[in-house]
């Protein structure tokens, strides 16, 4: 009877967890520890220093190998001239130096050598920071699981949208920046971070922000173009006024100004300017048409994405209801 009660309890508990998970959806993310470490400035600097040490150790090993090779070559050359005792003495010296070389290699590059130990010492504080950042992100954004892509875990496929590595790097760099900020700068930074987090969690908001920035850039460009056109008109009006004054003065003095005489070159320049204005107007119209078409396509894409998201949500709700129904049926059949 106790066994049956225990079995029924676990069935009910499993069904409850399944219904809860399916109703809200399991949220999974991953990080790439190697990618994160490469992006952390303090780790990159310390890693560079460690690599320089390792390179120095390798050079010392090569020097020892060359010394041993020279001893062996000298013994080979002088063997016929040496006594048995001297030969044995030199062989013992070579063997001793070879053993010293092996011991030195193990000390520097062995499984428990200086390189591994110092690398672990270097990585651990940053790994702790990464783990803390991942825990904060997982709790804040309700992730059920977060994996490390660079670990022994085999990941056959990982969608980029579930990669939290850049967010973790952002958290670490924010912490470094905060240490050098005033209270006012901290407030501004917190507001900026909040907006970035909201945009990261809401792709539609990111898209709207992008569209707003594009419209703002277009408005600024239009203002600049109008300003440039106004300056060009002003310059042209000033030149025309100057020319009219010269002609008036020339009439009073009875002379004809060179500027008053239209030349073939001037006619050509006027025609060229007129043609350039026509081409510029056509190009501007084409640009406006292209921007309008792009805006219409973007609006259509957003509507399609919203429809798709709504259909997926309805599908998930139906699946959750079906799972809940199956769980209830299984509980009914499990009752004695």
Automatic annotation (TrEMBL):
Keywords: Coiled coil, Signal. One of its GO terms (molecular function) is unfolded protein binding. Transmembrane segments: none annotated. Residues 40-107 form a coiled coil. GO terms for biological process: protein stabilization. One of its GO terms (cellular component) is cytosol. Residues 177-197, 205-215, 227-250, 272-336 have a biased composition (Basic and acidic residues). Residues 177-215, 227-336 are annotated as: Disordered. Residues 252-269 have a biased composition (Polar residues). The keyword Coiled coil applies. Belongs to the Skp family. This is Periplasmic chaperone for outer membrane proteins Skp. It comes from Flavobacterium fontis.
């Amino acid at each position: 009877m106790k066994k049956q009660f225990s079995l029924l309890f676990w069935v009910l508990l499993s069904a409850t967890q399944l219904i809860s998970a399916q109703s809200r959806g399991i949220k999974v993310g991953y990080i790439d520890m190697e990618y994160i470490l490469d992006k952390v400035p303090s780790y990159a600097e310390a890693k560079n220093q460690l690599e320089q040490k390792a390179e120095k150790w390798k050079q010392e090993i090569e020097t020892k190998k060359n010394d041993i090779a020279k001893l062996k070559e000298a013994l080979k050359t002088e063997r016929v001239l040496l006594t048995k005792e001297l030969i044995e003495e030199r062989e013992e010296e070579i063997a001793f130096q070879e053993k010293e070389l092996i011991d030195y290699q193990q000390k520097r590059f062995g499984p428990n050598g200086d390189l591994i130990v110092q690398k672990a010492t270097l990585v651990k504080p940053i790994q702790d920071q990464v783990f803390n950042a991942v825990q904060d992100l997982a709790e804040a954004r309700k992730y059920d699981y977060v994996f490390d892509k660079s670990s022994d875990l085999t990941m056959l496929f990982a969608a980029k949208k579930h990669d939290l590595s850049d967010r973790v790097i952002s958290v670490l760099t924010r912490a470094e920046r905060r240490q050098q900020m005033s209270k006012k700068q901290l407030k501004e930074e917190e507001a900026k971070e909040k907006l970035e987090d909201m945009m990261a969690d809401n792709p539609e908001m990111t898209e709207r922000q992008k569209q707003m920035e594009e419209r703002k850039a277009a408005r600024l460009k239009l203002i600049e173009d109008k300003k440039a056109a106004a300056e060009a008109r002003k310059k042209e009006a000033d030149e025309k006024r100057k020319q009219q004054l010269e002609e008036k003065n020339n009439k009073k003095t009875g002379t004809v100004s060179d500027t008053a005489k239209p030349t073939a070159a001037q006619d050509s320049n006027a025609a060229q300017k007129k043609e350039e204005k026509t081409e510029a107007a056509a190009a501007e119209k084409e640009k406006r048409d292209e921007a309008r078409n792009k805006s219409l396509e973007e609006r259509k894409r957003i509507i399609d994405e919203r429809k798709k998201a709504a259909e997926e949500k309805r599908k998930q709700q139906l699946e959750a209801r079906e799972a809940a129904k199956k769980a209830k049926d299984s509980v009914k059949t499990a009752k004695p």
